[in-house]
Design goal:
Elements lengths: L1 H11 L7 E6 L3 E7 L5 H5 L4 H13 L6 E7 L1
Parallel strand pairs: 2-3
Antiparallel strand pairs: 1-2
Length: 76
C-alpha cells in the first residue's frame, strides 16, 4: 500500500523527490502518512478535498482483500 500512495502522490506533485510515505501498523489498521512539499499540498488535497478523498478510495479498494483497515493521513 505504501508504494501505491507514493506513486499516486509523485504523479500529482511538482516536486516528486519530496514525497515521503511512512507506514505504521497497529493491531487492527495500517496508517499511511503522506508528506509532500508545502507548495504541493494543494495538489494532493484538491478542491474541497476531492483528490485526497480519491486517493483514500483507491487505497481502500486495493486493501479490501486484506483483513486490516488502511488509513491515509496527509501531513503538513
Amino acid at each position: 500500500m505504501k508504494e501505491l500512495v507514493e506513486i499516486i502522490a509523485k504523479s500529482l506533485v511538482d516536486l516528486p523527490d519530496e514525497v515521503v510515505v511512512t507506514e505504521e501498523e497497529t493491531q487492527d489498521a495500517i496508517v499511511l502518512k503522506l508528506k509532500v512539499a508545502d507548495e504541493d499540498m494543494g495538489k494532493v488535497i484538491g478542491k474541497q478535498g476531492r483528490i485526497a478523498k480519491s486517493i483514500r478510495t483507491v487505497v481502500k479498494a486495493a486493501a479490501s482483500k486484506g483483513d486490516k483497515k488502511v488509513i491515509v493521513d496527509i501531513l503538513q
